[in-house]
Write a structure and sequence with these properties.
single chain; about 300 residues; alpha+beta; Rossmann fold; six-stranded mixed β-sheet; 9 helices
Length: about 300
C-alpha cells in the first residue's frame, strides 16, 4: 500500500533557532508561510538552545505517533542528528530542512539548502528513501563520529563562531589555528571481525556521509552507499606534516597522504588503555561516551523524505 499523501499527514517541525548564519525569525516565518499557503496542518517546536532539541524531538515524535504525522527538523547537521536520534527507533518518516553551515547530510541527499520555503514545498511532494545510518554505542550519527584531535578542533571552532559569526571561513581559519596547538597521542585498540590491531593516532574519524568522504579524497567513500562505515586513522605527524595533511584534505586529497589509513567496515570496537570515558564529536556536537566504543551500522535505516523533483 502506498504511503498517504503528505498533505494529509500533519508535520511536527523541530526548529533550531540558532542554526546557520541567517535570521532565525525569517526562517521560521518562511516555514510557517509555506505550510500555511499549502493548507498543511503542522505544529512547530522552536528550540532557543541546542540543549532543548532532544526534549522537543521526543515531544514531536510522540505527537506524530499519536496523529499519524511526519517529524521535520530545520537546522544544521547537529540539529538533524538530535532529532534523528529520537525518530530512528520510532520508525517514523523524517523530513529535513537544512539550515546549517556545511549541511553535509542535506546536500548528500539533494535537499534544498538555505531556502526553507523551497524545502517545505519539496516535503509536500516527497518520496521516502531508506538511508543507512551509523551508531556509536547507543548514539546515532549521520555524517561522522570522531575522537582525538577532531573534537578539540570543533570545540575551538564553536568558540570562534560565537565570537566572529557562523560562517564557513571562520570555521576553516579556526581549524587551521587549532593545528598550531598540541595534538593528542592516542594508542587505539581496534577490533574488527575478531582481529585486533593497536595503532598510534592523533585522530580517528568514522564517516557515514559519501559527500564528505569524497570531498576529502577518501577512496572508500562509496562504501557507505552499500551499508558500510569508513574509518580514517591519522597517525602522529610532525606539525608541518599535519598542516600539509589538513590542506590536502581541504583540496580533496587526504586519502593520498602518507600513513593515513582508511578502511570500510560494518562493526568496529575501539578501546584505549587506562581510559573509561572519552570525548567524541558526533555530527559536529561534543559528547562523552564510555569505553570501549562500538561503531556499527544501525539495524534499521532512517525513513528520509526527499523531493520527487531534484532541487
Amino acid at each position: 500500500m502506498p504511503p498517504p499523501d503528505d498533505r494529509q499527514r500533519p508535520f511536527f517541525v523541530v526548529l533550531n533557532r540558532r542554526s546557520g548564519s541567517g535570521d532565525a525569525a525569517a526562517t521560521e516565518q518562511a516555514i510557517r508561510g509555506a505550510l500555511d499557503r499549502a493548507g498543511q496542518p503542522y505544529r512547530l517546536f522552536g528550540a532557543r538552545h541546542p540543549r532543548e532539541l532532544g526534549v522537543l524531538a521526543a515531544q514531536a515524535v510522540a505527537a506524530a505517533r499519536a496523529q499519524g504525522g511526519v517529524v521535520v527538523v530545520a537546522g544544521g547537521d547537529g540539529s538533524i542528528n538530535a532529532v534523528a536520534q529520537a525518530v530512528l527507533p520510532s520508525g517514523l518518516p523524517l523530513g529535513v530542512l537544512p539550515e546549517g553551515t556545511f549541511n553535509f547530510f542535506g546536500r548528500c541527499h539533494g535537499l534544498p539548502e538555505g531556502d526553507p520555503g523551497a524545502g517545505v514545498r519539496g516535503l509536500l511532494d516527497a518520496r521516502e528513501t531508506a538511508v543507512p545510518v551509523g551508531m556509536v554505542n547507543d548514539r546515532v550519527f549521520l555524517v561522522n563520529a570522531s575522537l582525538g584531535l577532531y573534537p578539540e578542533l570543533l570545540e575551538r571552532r564553536e568558540q570562534d563562531k560565537r565570537r566572529f559569526g557562523r560562517h564557513r571561513l571562520v570555521a576553516l581559519l579556526s581549524g587551521l589555528r587549532a593545528l598550531l596547538g598540541n595534538y593528542p597521542d592516542l594508542r587505539l585498540s581496534l577490533c574488527e571481525d575478531g582481529r585486533t590491531q593497536v595503532k598510534r593516532s592523533t585522530t580517528l574519524v568514522v564517516g557515514d556521509n559519501r559527500l564528505q568522504l569524497e570531498s576529502i579524497g577518501i577512496p572508500q567513500a562509496d562504501a557507505v552507499t552499500r551499508g558500510a562505515l569508513v574509518g580514517i586513522v591519522l597517525p602522529p605527524l610532525a606539525r608541518w606534516r599535519m598542516i600539509a595533511a589538513a590542506i590536502r584534505g581541504l583540496c580533496g586529497h587526504l586519502g593520498d597522504v602518507e600513513k593515513v589509513d582508511s578502511f570500510a567496515f560494518t562493526e568496529l570496537e575501539v578501546a584505549l588503555p587506562r581510559r573509561r570515558r572519552i570525548k567524541l564529536a558526533v555530527d559536529g556536537e561534543i559528547i562523552r561516551l564510555a569505553l570501549p566504543l562500538h561503531f556499527r551500522v544501525a539495524p534499521q535505516p532512517l525513513r528520509l523524505l526527499v523531493p520527487r523533483q531534484p532541487s
